């Protein structure tokens, strides 16, 4: 019987085969010989594991590759060596250490989670011990909790992150849509069955490492894989066909002018974004959101979103930005009908891709007289919008905690 036949797309048969497949033994043997054992958050060489660096790393590694995370992790742990130090830190400090890593809600969750954990430690004397207890911490889902318990607590924990899902769908030939809840349930069931009761932390590191280094998305290196002999995708020669994902709709695009309001001292206005939403707590230049009204081959007309009849503004558009745009239009310093010509100038707009949309950002410099600056500040203060503002020179502004998109706008 071929090695494919025992699966035959029957999940019950898949589980029965997996139970006696020595999958974990092969994974652990590979890791001991070839795995990465020098990552700064790993605990397997320590006598007593520490859940704190495991938690930090697992949150950082959500949506971000290891090579990118490592320098951020070192800097973060150096500044916040304990959960108590992180809980006591100001958000501005944390935002500064996170700037450029993206998905800033993760940093917010770490700060909130640190406060939750310190309360638990002060009450119980230690970090949470179970997967269920870790899942009560902000930003910690089932797989992250399993990783923390397995590696940072050294108790039984199951992981099923993106790398693991890719390995398991290929090995078991699971050809249903990975985004469907039924497929997710299958993968968790299979992951739980394959995870050894002993050494689940080492196993977690092994299967994640295999997914990151061998069983990669585009170029799997099956010749060196410890599970190649009974991997369905390898037998079929269809490795990159797994995991199966339904086609997503194209991301929509949003367009904004990035307003570099510059005073007579060559200082530029920066706004601190609110504590929720995109780029939460970080400093940004004001944005003017615009939309295409008509798009012909040679002519595109634009409209300030704040002037649209339906008044349907994106969540990213702050009230203070609407005030600034209105002020600039009243002062004849900004004409959004010229946006088409602006968007065709060099340099081209910065395209910043986010989870749900592409954001086209075009920086423009607008010089303010001393009177115009004072009039604008008066309007902002009168509006009582509770937004922190600061005027800084380009060099001084580099010290602000800001998103990557804003860093690209600053001169080198």
From TrEMBL:
Protein keywords: 4Fe-4S, DNA damage, DNA repair, Glycosidase, Hydrolase, Iron, Iron-sulfur, Metal-binding
EC number: 3.2.2.31
Catalytic activity: Hydrolyzes free adenine bases from 7,8-dihydro-8-oxoguanine:adenine mismatched double-stranded DNA, leaving an apurinic site
Superkingdom of the organism of origin: Bacteria
Enzyme kind, highest EC tier: hydrolase
Cofactor binding remark: Binds 1 [4Fe-4S] cluster.
Domain HhH-GPD: 60-213
Gene3D superfamilies membership: Helix-hairpin-Helix base-excision DNA repair enzymes (C-terminal), Hypothetical protein, domain 2, Nucleoside Triphosphate Pyrophosphohydrolase
SUPFAM superfamilies named in the record: DNA-glycosylase (SSF48150), Nudix (SSF55811)
GO molecular function term, any single one: 8-oxo-7,8-dihydroguanine DNA N-glycosylase activity
GO biological process: base-excision repair; mismatch repair
The protein's required cofactors: [4Fe-4S] cluster
PROSITE patterns: ENDONUCLEASE_III_2
Family statement drawn from the similarity comment of this UniProt entry: Belongs to the Nth/MutY family.
Function as written in the Swiss-Prot or TrEMBL entry: Adenine glycosylase active on G-A mispairs. MutY also corrects error-prone DNA synthesis past GO lesions which are due to the oxidatively damaged form of guanine: 7,8-dihydro-8-oxoguanine (8-oxo-dGTP).
The protein's name: Adenine DNA glycosylase
Protein species of origin: Moraxella macacae 0408225
């Amino acid at each position: 019987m071929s090695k494919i036949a025992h699966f035959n797309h029957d999940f019950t048969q898949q589980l029965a085969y997996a139970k006696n497949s020595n999958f974990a033994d092969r994974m652990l043997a590979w890791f001991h010989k070839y795995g990465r054992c020098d990552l700064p958050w790993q605990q397997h060489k320590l006598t007593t594991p520490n859940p704190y660096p495991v938690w930090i790393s697992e949150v950082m590694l959500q949506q971000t590759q290891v090579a990118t995370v490592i320098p951020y992790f070192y800097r973060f742990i150096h500044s916040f060596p304990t959960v108590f130090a992180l809980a006591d830190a100001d958000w501005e400090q944390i935002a500064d250490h996170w700037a450029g890593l993206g998905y800033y809600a993760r940093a917010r969750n770490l700060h909130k989670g640190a406060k939750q954990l310190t309360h638990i430690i002060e009450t119980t004397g230690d970090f949470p011990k179970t997967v269920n207890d870790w899942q009560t911490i902000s930003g910690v889902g089932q797989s992250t909790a399993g990783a923390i318990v397995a590696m940072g607590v050294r108790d039984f924990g199951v992981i099923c992150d993106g790398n693991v899902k890719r390995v398991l769908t290929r090995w078991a030939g699971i050809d249903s849509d990975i985004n469907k809840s039924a497929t997710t349930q299958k993968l968790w069931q299979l992951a739980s069955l394959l995870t050894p009761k002993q050494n689940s932390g080492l196993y977690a590191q092994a299967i994640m490492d295999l997914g990151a280094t061998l069983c990669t998305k585009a170029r799997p290196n099956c010749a060196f894989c410890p599970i190649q002999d009974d991997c369905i995708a390898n037998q079929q020669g269809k490795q990159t066909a797994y995991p199966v994902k339904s086609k997503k709709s194209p991301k929509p695009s949003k367009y904004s002018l990035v307003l570099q309001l510059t005073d007579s001292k060559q200082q530029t206005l920066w706004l601190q974004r609110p504590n929720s939403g995109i780029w939460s707590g970080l400093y940004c230049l004001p944005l003017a959101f615009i939309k295409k009204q008509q798009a012909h081959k040679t002519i595109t007309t634009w409209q300030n979103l704040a002037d649209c009849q339906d008044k349907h503004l994106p969540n990213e558009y702050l009230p203070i930005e609407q005030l600034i745009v209105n002020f600039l239009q009243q002062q004849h310093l900004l004409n959004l009908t010229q946006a088409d010509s602006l968007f065709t100038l060099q340099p081209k707009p910065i395209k910043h891709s986010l989870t749900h949309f592409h954001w086209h950002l075009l920086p423009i410099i607008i010089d303010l007289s001393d009177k115009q600056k004072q009039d604008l500040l008066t309007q902002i203060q009168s509006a009582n919008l509770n937004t922190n503002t600061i005027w800084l020179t380009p060099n001084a502004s580099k010290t602000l905690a800001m998103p990557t998109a804003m860093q690209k706008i600053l001169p080198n």
